[in-house]
Amino acid sequence: MPMIDLALHRLPTPLKLVLTxxxxxxxxxxxxxxxxxxxxxxxxxxxxxxxxxxxxxVYSGVTVEKSSAKSAPSIMLKMIEGAMRQYVSxxxxxxxxxxxxxxxxxEPGLEKERDGRTPRRVITLNCLRCHAADSGELIGTKxxxxxxxxxxxxxxxxxxxxxxxxxxAGTVRIGPQSAPHLxxxxxxxxxxxPIFTLIVAFLFWLTPLPRGFRAIVAPIPMLTLVFDFSSxxxxxxxxxxIYVIAAAGAAYGSAFGLQLLSIAYATWRRPPANxxxxxx
Length: 280
Fold this sequence. Notes:
280 residues; disordered N terminus; 12 helices; 2 domains; mainly alpha; elongated
């Protein structure tokens, strides 16, 4: 039985174009994922920029000085900037609600009007259909904003609009994110990322790089995903796992980027002198 030649440079040009577009979209998508991590986690500890303390605030919780926690985002603010952004589709509504939460104006700020909109009106129109206690939704029982779909109750909502809970004098505790939200992002990531990571690893194995080098680099992205995902949960009981998350992310990005570039080069490289390019 003849051997099937899977050399990437032997692919017909139309398939090379398809593969190159696939690699380009994966590379761009990964860069956007990094940007999303920065946008969603930056400042989680109440300070500008993205540091290891931001990861602690998200995955294990962190105690910071109150003076540095003045700008620490509340649970509700983090949610509307992230997973719940899609449910406040009107940009003007989003800005009214966002600024109220960011400024920490509390109950009096609920009635502060801007362009005919108030935070209370925005919450009523965008949030209460799920967050009302009588909505019939699970989130309405776990995070109620009012007794019914027409009433915003500040006593109910206040626990989600403050930056944290006081621990000892001069400090505040921030995070970690709720278990239901972590379940959501864990299942979404675990069902999607390993699929294209596996495809890229297989394509990388078809490159002409030395076999020993391929044997080392090919499994790195998939193995780092195992450490990364498991550490999201482990960090809740073992804060040191935060450093595993950071290291795994760096290792994944480096190895994955190398694989993408290697595949692109192998696809379009000039064939060896004793071989002729495929024309089919």
